[in-house]
Every structure is written in C-alpha cells, then in structure tokens.
Fold:
Amino acid sequence: MNENDIVRFVSGLPGTLAVTAGADNGAPEAAWGDSFFFYDPEGETPPDRRMPFATLVVKDYEGFDTASSLNRPGVFRLNVSVGRARFQQLLGYAPAAHPDHHSGIDYTVADRLLPHPVYATQGWISILNPGEATGSQARALLEEAHARAAERHRPRR
Structure:
C-alpha cells in the first residue's frame, strides 16, 4: 500500500471526508502533506470540531513527534484510532500502560503494527508503510475505526 492507495481506500468509506493539509485549506504549515480522515456524512461539522478516525503522516513534527523518523525518503505512517479495548487486544496491554512499554519499542520499523508513539494512551495504533505483512490488517482496522466514528456520530436519543 502506498499513500495514494490508503487515501483512495479511506475516501471510499461512506460518509468519509478526507483532507490533505495544505496552504489552500488554511492548515498549519507543519501539517502540509499529511492527510486526515473524518466521518462527516453531511459535511456540516465545523473544521475546528472534527476529530479524525485516522491520519496519514508523511514527516516528523520536530520537537513533538519524531520517534518514527518519517523524514526518511518514502516513509509514511498510517495512524488509526482503534479505541482502548481493541488496542489491548492488538498489543497485549492497555493504552494507559503504554508509558511502561514506550522505551522498548522501535517506532521506525516498517510494515508492523505498533502503538502510536504519541497517542497510544488514547487508543491509537500506527503502521509505517503498510505492506505485505499488515496491508489487510490496516484496511480492516480502518473499516473498524470508520464504523466506530459513524456510531459516535449518530444523534443521541
């Protein structure tokens, strides 16, 4: 899977709004080139109220998010909000326990399911350059995250 494959796949999920940050949409320059995927079927959610269910990041955020070394040529990171229970199923420990595991993880390894280096405690996972080992799993996790976002989007009764 390359970046375009992921954007096409996620954009094809019903009600998904895909935004690639750039000068044309007023995004902060630090985010330019990164893609954010929101569930917003009516297109009525104000941009400052949207929460992505997945992101595609193509570079390091200096001083904040550099553990994956995304500034290497051809390297990108898919990030997916899987929730706390699914995170524990996938990684074998609760998101709240991630600080105890953080130092032992090599976040630069491609095609492997990893906790997100910054947002693991919120139930986010990441995969650098999903490929043969993780491509199918990445698509399934994106579909699950989309379904969770759709469920949260429903009006409360």
Summary: The longest helix spans residues 135-153.
